[in-house]
Amino acid sequence: LHRVDRRQRQMCIRDRICNDAFYSSGLCEVNIPSSVRVVGTRAFAFCKYLRSVEFETGIKTISESMFSNCKNLRFIELPSSVEKIEGDAFAECALQKIDLPENINTIESYAFRECDSLTFVTIPPKVTSINSGTFYSCDFLEKVNIHDEVKYIANDAFDRCDKLTICGIKGSYAEQYAKKHNIPFEKLDTTIQSVN
Fold first, then answer.
1. In this predicted model, which residue has the larger pLDDT, 102 or 4?
2. Are 185 and 165 in contact (CB under 8 A)?
3. How far apart (Å, rounded) are the C-alpha atoms in residues 192 and 124?
4. Under 8 Å between Cβ of 104 and 127
5. Tens digits of residue pLDDT in 99-139
6. Is 11's pLDDT higher than 80?
7. Mean pLDDT over residues 19-31, rounded?
8. Across the strands, what pairs with 76?
9. Rounded Cα gap, residues 40 and 110, in angstroms
10. What is the dihedral of CA 105, 106, 111, 117, to 10 degrees?
11. In 22-149, where do the E strands start and end?
């Protein structure tokens, strides 16, 4: 962690980073070591200079609003240990790309709200639902790959994603959803492996 003042050091306790620890700080780069198991809500929210985040394997949850309003955070690679992304985790970020690990099973509402630069996402195979407003107003989101394990997509999951094409398996719930909501659908050649 860079540019950490005394108060902020006190917010980092052994295996966790506390709520609001670096809220609106001048951080440019962050490395979260494997010893950290929990990062609190809004820990890096409104860090307008933050452009690079590196994780070592260990953390399981990207907490609520953890990186919200990080206007210079264009790419982030999450570790394979992550299983859950909470609400507003990346809301209003400058993300252009995010690789979602296959172990993720839950993406909460508004997780990627208003990520205006995001163009492509593949929903991990353990995710079975796409919740309310997950990709709300992602203006340049062009393609979302949705595997055939997804059985529920909220009506407003992709509201104001006017450039969107949903890619999925013919006959899948994703295709039914696309047709119901007048979203272009593109058939994938093969299915992502089902999760047992």
1. 102
2. yes
3. 9
4. yes
5. 999 999 999 999 999 999 999 999 999 999 999 999 999 99
6. no
7. 92
8. 98
9. 18
10. 20
11. 29-32, 38-39, 52-55, 61-62, 75-77, 84-85, 97-99, 106-107, 120-122, 129-130, 143-145
